Amino acid sequence: MKKRNKIGIGASMILGVIITILVVANLNIVYNTNITDDNILKDILNENEEYQEEEVWQVIYQGNPLGENTPAAEAGGFMSCFLLDYGQDPATVLANNATDWSAAATVHAYADSDDWSEDSPSEDPFYVVVRTRFTETQAKDGANWNGSRCRITLTASGDEAISQTIVGNNTAETYGGGIESDNNSAYNHLYINFYFDDNSDGYRITDDGSLTISEIKIEAKY
User: Fold this and answer.
1) For residues 100 and 111, what is the distance between their CA atoms, to the nearest angstrom?
2) For the stretch 172-202, what's the b/e string if a residue is b when 16 or more beta carbons lie within 10 angstroms of its beta carbon?
3) HSE on the CB side for 82, CA within 13 Å?
């Protein structure tokens, strides 16, 4: 009886060892399969890639119009604001990359100080123009600039109520356009002159009236 019991215990131990080896081996196979499965790795890589490449509109400037402004070397943003005579062709005129429009005969009022309070002939129609600059991070696709990744929203009140967003696609749209004044893939910045149009007879200031630009918001999609 004792001998039989001793043999029985030994067989159980051997069987237990075999089962343990099989379990460990099976777990190891499952573990290795999980970390080497090509489909799983591809799914992980694809998820990361999609997350990294997602572009969203981001505000790079928001506030009242400043005077002449030059953003820091590695920044984009607001540069100037002025009123352009409505008799001009903005797609042609605004292709000029002038940094200072104050002396232009076609400009009614040019913001040359932070507290913009300029006189303009009453009842003389105009476009509102905002000059902007964008960096490679903000507006470049590969080696080329893409103005469609840039936009601006203008809010104004007074004799004219304006609440309009314009995208910088370098074309004249119904209510304005974003005209690229300097697009050179070798340069570090893209310059866009955005203009706003009432799609009628131009914005106007009445006799003794006023136009208050309350906010300029410049965004880039990156």
Assistant:
1) 10
2) beeebbbbbbebeeeeebbbbbbbbbbeeeb
3) 26
User: From residue 97, how far is each of 33, 86, 144, 180 by CA, in Å?
Assistant: 61, 19, 19, 8
Which pLDDT score, from 0 to 100, does residue 113 have? Answer: 74
pLDDT digits (tens, 9 = 90+) for 163-179: 999 999 998 889 999 99
Task: Output the pLDDT for position 54.
Answer: 82
Structure tokens that stand for 37 in this block: 């499965």
Q: Within the chain, which residues score under 70 in pLDDT?
A: 1-53, 114-116
Which residue carries 């000029």 as its tokens?
96
What is the pLDDT at residue 52? 58
